[in-house]
């Protein structure tokens, strides 16, 4: 069964399955012998077969050194990692692991007896899953021995709030979530070893945020992320993030912004360059100097600044000594090489190899250049529809079809994991993410030299537009001030109007009273006259 997007519900793991996969539980630890003893005792109670389980405890420089307690799983061993940091400790354990599945577990986390089995039932269904259990945080004092009933001993406990909120908000991560990789936390997550091999180990250069960054690379490698509420565990005490979230985020965001392009809000600067760009365009550098320059300059001048351009060509074959450059048969390659050698966003490479951490790849055919907003619009389409591939039809003739391609890296990684021998990769991408076609003319792609070389004016136009935007912003502020004055004046008029209406109402009441008095006087006068006339003697 092939999962589309992150809708893992189609997999349906069996309740009763025959365990056959091995699992390596990696437990990094720095001090805390009492908590480690409880964690290993909890692992010794697991229902998943002990013969299929190994536990690698990594002492990350504890003083005094850690030791293995008597109560522990049979396949437990202790290694020492001299490099500081939890990422280094996990990588040291990963180097020792031999299981089909790698299960990260913190040394202060106590898994319930069926937790590992709940993880492993998913991995028996598909080899590209990341499964995260539900941790609950308890402030109960650390007991001397592992309680028989964890729930009775540690409840009430606090749930892992942000994970619960993320899962509920995205219908269990199936509702086309933008960042399901956030579910990868080191406290209680299991990962297919095949995925880790594709994604690579944890980034030891990061100060914080290593779990999330690795989760991102696992997603790029084609992972499907599964929350498993039956894989329950108890965390002894709060996490560092729970104790000091704002300061943790401050440090983490400073580093992960370079490595996780999907965190768009961390990349608000309009002209910054990042370690991992959001999109990489691949251009054939042998198409002629003017043609290549037109395409590359159009890309660099577009509204998507968070990109790199790979220009392919036999750069190593270029002659370094040129006595007669105009007679050089490879002059156009020399010009392309020289023109972009020192451009920070351009990579000159022999093959169209793209960093697998880059979320999107735009592949352009010879001689075609995008418009200023072409790439931005294609990215919007791909994101909004959750597509794995957008084909841009540029030209069609009896000789064939010319098309540009915007590829989502994670969708193609998933497709490569699932494709059968001889199966077309685009067809698999269509199954797991979706494929569509659009007209190149609609998205402003062109081969016209004037239009292409004219892109150099885009930067000037953009500067003028920014200046105009600044002017309009000042005008808006001026008008806002004027509106404020008008509102104040209107308030005065409203107040005057209210007072006037009150005066008019008073006058109306007085006039009505006067009318009533006048009518009373007339009635009295009429009665008096009638009475007077009735008393006069007749002639």
CATH top level of the largest domain? Alpha Beta
Q: What is the architecture of the largest domain at the second tier of CATH?
A: Alpha-Beta Complex
Task: Based on Cα principal axes, name the global outline.
Answer: flat
Helix content: 40-55%
What count of structural domains? Answer: 2
Radius of gyration: 36 Å
Ends apart, CA distance between termini: 127 Å
Beta-strand proportion: 15-25%
- Please count the helical segments: 16
Low-confidence stretches at least 5 residues in length (pLDDT < 50)?
Answer: 449-456
* Largest sheet data: 9 strands, mixed
Overall description:
This protein has 539 residues and is α/β, with parallel strands linked by helices. The chain has two domains: 20-266, Spore Coat Polysaccharide Biosynthesis Protein SpsA, Chain A, CATH 3.90.550.10; 279-454, Alpha-Beta Complex (Spore Coat Polysaccharide Biosynthesis Protein SpsA, Chain A), CATH 3.90.550. It is built from 16 helices and 16 strands. The strands form two sheets. Strands 1, 2, 3, 4, 5, 6, 7, 8 and 9 form a nine-stranded mixed beta sheet that branches. A seven-stranded mixed beta sheet has the order 12-11-10-13-15-14-16. Helix 10 runs parallel beside helix 11 (331-340).
């Amino acid at each position: 069964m092939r999962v589309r997007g992150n809708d893992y519900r189609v997999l349906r793991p069996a309740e009763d399955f025959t365990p056959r996969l091995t699992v390596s539980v990696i437990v990094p630890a720095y001090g805390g012998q009492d908590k480690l003893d409880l964690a290993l005792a909890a692992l010794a109670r697991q229902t998943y077969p002990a013969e299929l389980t190994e536990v690698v405890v990594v002492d990350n420089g504890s003083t005094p050194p850690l030791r293995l307690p008597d109560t522990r799983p049979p396949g437990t061993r202790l290694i020492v990692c001299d490099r500081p940091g939890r990422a280094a400790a996990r990588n040291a354990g990963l180097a020792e692991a031999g299981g089909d599945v790698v299960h990260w577990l913190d040394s202060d986390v106590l898994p319930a007896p069926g937790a590992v089995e709940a993880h492993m039932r998913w991995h028996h269904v598909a080899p590209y899953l990341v499964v995260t259990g539900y941790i609950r945080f308890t402030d109960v004092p650390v007991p001397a021995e592992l309680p028989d009933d964890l729930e009775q001993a540690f409840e009430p406990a606090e749930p892992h709030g942000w994970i619960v909120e993320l899962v509920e908000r995205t219908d269990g991560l199936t509702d086309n979530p933008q960042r399901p990789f956030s579910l990868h936390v080191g406290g209680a997550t299991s990962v297919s070893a095949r995925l880790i091999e594709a994604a690579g180990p944890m980034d030891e250069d990061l100060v914080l945020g290593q779990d999330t960054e690795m989760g991102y690379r696992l997603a790029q490698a084609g992972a499907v992320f599964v929350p498993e509420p039956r894989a329950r565990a108890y965390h002894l005490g709060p996490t560092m993030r729970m104790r000091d979230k704002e300061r943790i985020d401050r440090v983490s965001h400073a580093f992960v912004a370079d490595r996780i392009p999907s965190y768009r809000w961390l990349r608000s600067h309009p002209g910054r360059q990042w370690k991992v760009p959001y999109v990489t365009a691949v251009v054939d550098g042998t198409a002629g100097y003017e043609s290549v320059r037109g395409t590359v300059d159009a890309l660099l001048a577009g509204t998507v600044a968070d990109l790199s351009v790979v220009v392919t060509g036999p750069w190593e074959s270029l002659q370094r000594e040129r006595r007669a450059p105009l007679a050089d048969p490879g002059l156009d390659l020399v010009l392309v090489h020289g023109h972009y050698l020192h451009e920070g966003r351009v990579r000159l490479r022999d093959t169209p190899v793209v960093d697998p951490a880059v979320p999107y790849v735009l592949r352009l055919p010879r001689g075609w250049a995008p418009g200023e907003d072409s790439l931005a619009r294609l990215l919007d389409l791909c994101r909004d529809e959750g597509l794995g591939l957008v084909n841009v039809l540029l030209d069609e003739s009896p000789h064939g079809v010319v098309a540009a391609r915007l590829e989502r890296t994670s969708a193609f990684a998933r497709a490569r994991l699932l494709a059968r021998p001889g199966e077309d990769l685009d067809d698999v991408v269509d199954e797991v993410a979706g494929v569509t076609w659009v007209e190149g003319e609609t998205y402003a792609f062109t081969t016209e030299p004037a239009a292409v070389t004219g892109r150099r004016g885009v930067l000037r136009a953009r500067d003028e537009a920014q200046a105009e935007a600044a002017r309009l912003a000042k005008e808006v502020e001026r008008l806002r001030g004027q509106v404020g004055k008008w509102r104040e004046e209107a308030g005065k008029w409203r107040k005057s109007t209210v007072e006037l209406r009150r005066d008019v109402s008073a006058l109306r009441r007085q006039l009505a009273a006067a009318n009533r008095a006048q009518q009373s006087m007339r009635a009295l006068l009429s009665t008096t006259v009638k009475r007077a006339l009735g008393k006069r003697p007749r002639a």
